[in-house]
Inverse folding.
């Protein structure tokens, strides 16, 4: 099962290396990882998405908790939470199919952030399901390049 | 207000931590620290390889339970320390390794003797620091000791660039020395639950390990075992927590434990796992370990609970505190039916020690030496057959008597660890049982032993082989021996003498026992070479990956290949 883990860490030199090393060293796979400062500039929030059996995820949570620079660890998946991810996708277009791509972009309430002769770049924000559905539809036109931020989340309460 | 350099500040802070001895090696990037060390009260011990310095620090920490420090320079100094640091991580030993680093302006330029010590030591430390300014030292040094000794102990690396060592800093006062955080409070409901499990068990076994030693829980363990009549098995690193001659003590479990010990665990209905991590050498195939037992697991590190075996009840806590809270709730029991069965199995499948009377055979060397070694001596080993023979046969009786590289299994551990133990406990003897393969891996420390004139005795079981490798090739690789025999056989006694260490060769002695006694009575370091049969194996043995019930006894199994 997929878990969205939110980790508050001291905003210090080397923290990312410690966390990334923990995952690779113990053979855990990271699906996505997003890091940024919080309301307190000395603290960063890492949102880590992992897939695994409950026992594996439990071990991941415990190992994260052991890190000296980790302040708190929460598995958001347990309770109500909000999650978002931003992606930029450059879709191959021709004069013939451009309007069709624009229509899809509109239905998904995305923004067109760049237009070239042979491509459109779309900015989309959403949860995992929406972005997957969007990419699925755009695939047939040809995706030239794709960048995504990784998922971030907050518990509702 | 007073002024200090970063290097001087490090020495003052280490003095305030109670550090009196630091093994290490100087080099370009840590020379400011050595300059400051010169005028410090701290005694420096010059190792001959940084790995030796790291293991000496381990020897001090294992002997005293307090964090010990070692020094190395940047680049090769740091990489040479790595094995000793990793070893401390796996065995949860509190050491603080302080390394020199190239000046900050040169970091990342592939400068002479530059290596990313911080990056290299992330996976092998409990925590590590790259110090960016002299002012940071005020937090980092006390914090390094706090982290190394809090909860589950472990190694910490502090990497100090040369410009930070040279920087001047103005101070009003020194920070408080770092000390271990208080362990988590013992929770009454957990203790009550644990007591119910123990009181209602019919075939309980106490399974103890290094956590008992680290939390100084040996006394309370003995009290509990005595009152409840629960038999006790130990991991390799738990040896000494229970006295060898205690009637309830079943010795080591696992790969080279007595067959009866592993059979008793098979029949147990409650495993009280205290300060252990279910290491594969102890459990064998984990899925088939103690198949009939509920598990009560007590450990200071919550990540150990459920890592290998899901416990019925897992308690995060200092094992000594938990056992002390538990003791008054435990019924005084006889468990006579269970103990009858235990003793029946012990009688039927004891640990055989052939040759225990012969000073020229492995068990004999350990047993006979034990009679001659003072009771308060610290015993270290290297890694291999001699390590297992010593673990099986030496009558350990007190915690911290025993030092061995359990988790990492580092050949070369024994001699420098013994030197560290002897430095920390100058009124005691430290005896290193070693093998000819292992001893060569840090033999240069004989020079340190001679220089410091430490009371270290090396008893070398010399079979001109990597014995445990040879044994596995014999048993599991169809006797296809390869790269396990040493064709060049050094004269270890001559080598020792060359280093200025007294040496005896029992192979050339007309009265080996007398020679051994004489050697052990030498005042300083001494090496005792004992040639042993080259084809000797350690038995019994659980084949790697097999269940503990599937021990092989040697002769019968080996015949299949003969």
């Amino acid at each position: 099962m997929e878990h969205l883990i939110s980790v508050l860490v001291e905003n210090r030199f080397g923290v990312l290396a410690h966390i990334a090393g923990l995952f690779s060293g113990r053979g855990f796979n990271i699906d996505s990882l997003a890091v940024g400062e919080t309301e307190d500039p000395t603290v960063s929030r890492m949102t880590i998405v992992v897939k695994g059996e409950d026992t594996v995820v439990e071990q991941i949570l415990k190992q994260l908790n052991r890190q000296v620079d980790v302040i708190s660890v929460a598995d958001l998946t347990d309770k109500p939470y909000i999650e978002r991810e931003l992606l930029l996708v450059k879709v191959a277009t021709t004069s013939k199919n451009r309007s069709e791509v624009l229509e899809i972009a509109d239905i998904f309430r995305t923004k067109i952030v760049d237009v070239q002769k042979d491509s459109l770049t779309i900015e989309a924000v959403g949860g995992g399901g929406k972005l997957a559905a969007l990419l699925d539809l755009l695939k047939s036109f040809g995706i030239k390049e794709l960048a995504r931020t990784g998922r971030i989340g907050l518990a509702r309460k | 207000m007073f002024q200090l350099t970063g290097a001087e500040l490090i020495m003052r802070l280490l003095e305030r931590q109670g550090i009196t001895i630091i093994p290490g090696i100087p080099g370009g990037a840590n020379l400011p620290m050595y300059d400051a060390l010169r005028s410090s009260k701290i005694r420096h011990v010059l190792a001959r390889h940084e790995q030796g310095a790291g293991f000496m620090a381990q020897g001090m920490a294992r002997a005293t339970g307090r964090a010990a420090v070692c020094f190395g320079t940047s680049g090769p100094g740091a990489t040479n320390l790595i094995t000793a640091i990793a070893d401390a991580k796996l065995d949860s030993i509190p050491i603080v390794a302080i390394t020199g680093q190239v000046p900050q302006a040169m970091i990342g330029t592939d400068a002479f003797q530059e290596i990313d010590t911080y990056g290299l030591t992330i996976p092998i430390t409990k925590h590590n620091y790259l110090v960016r300014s002299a002012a940071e030292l005020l937090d980092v040094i006390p914090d390094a000791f706090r982290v190394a000794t809090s909860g589950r102990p472990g190694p910490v690396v502090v990497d100090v660039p040369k410009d930070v060592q040279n920087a001047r800093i103005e101070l009003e006062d020194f920070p408080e020395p770092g000390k271990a955080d208080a362990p988590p409070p013992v929770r009454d409901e957990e203790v009550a639950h644990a007591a119910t499990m123990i009181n209602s068990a019919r075939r309980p076994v106490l399974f103890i390990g290094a956590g008992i030693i680290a939390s100084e829980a040996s006394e309370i363990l003995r009290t509990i075992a005595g009152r409840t009549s629960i038999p006790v098995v130990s991991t390799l690193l738990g040896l000494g927590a229970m006295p060898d001659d205690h009637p309830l003590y079943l010795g080591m479990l696992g790969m080279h434990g007595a067959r009866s010990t592993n059979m008793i665990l098979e029949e147990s209905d409650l495993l009280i796992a205290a300060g252990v991590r279910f290491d594969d050498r102890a459990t064998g195939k984990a899925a088939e370990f103690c198949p009939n037992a509920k598990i009560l697991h007590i450990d200071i590190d919550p990540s150990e609970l459920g890592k290998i075996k899901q416990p019925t009840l897992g308690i995060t806590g200092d094992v000594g505190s938990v056992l002390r809270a538990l003791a008054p709730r435990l019924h005084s029991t006889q468990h006579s039916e269970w103990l009858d069965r235990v003793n029946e199995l012990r009688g039927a499948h004891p640990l055989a020690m052939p040759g225990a009377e012969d000073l020229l055979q492995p068990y004999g060397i350990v047993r006979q030496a034990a009679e001659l070694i003072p009771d308060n001596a610290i015993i270290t080993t290297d890694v291999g057959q001699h390590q297992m023979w010593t673990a099986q046969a030496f009558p350990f009786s007190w915690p911290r008597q025993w030092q061995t590289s359990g988790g990492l299994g580092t050949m070369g551990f024994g001699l420098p660890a013994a030197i560290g133990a002897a430095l920390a406990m100058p009124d005691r003897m430290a005896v290193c049982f070693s093998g000819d393969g292992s001893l060569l891996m840090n033999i240069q420390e004989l020079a340190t032993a001679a220089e410091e004139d430490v009371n270290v005795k090396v008893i070398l079981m010399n079979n001109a082989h990597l014995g445990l490798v040879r044994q596995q090739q014999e048993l599991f690789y169809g006797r296809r021996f390869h790269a396990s025999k040493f064709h060049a056989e050094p004269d270890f006694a001559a080598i020792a003498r060359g280093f200025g260490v007294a040496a005896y060769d029992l192979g050339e002695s007309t009265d080996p026992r007398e020679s051994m006694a004489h050697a052990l009575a030498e005042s300083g370091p001494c090496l005792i070479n004992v040639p042993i049969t080259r084809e000797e194996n350690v038995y019994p043995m659980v084949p790697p990956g097999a269940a503990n019930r599937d021990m092989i006894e040697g002769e019968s199994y080996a015949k299949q290949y003969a």
In short: The beta strands of chain A are 2-10, 32-37, 43-51, 70-75, 81-92, 111-116, 119-126, 143-148, 152-155.
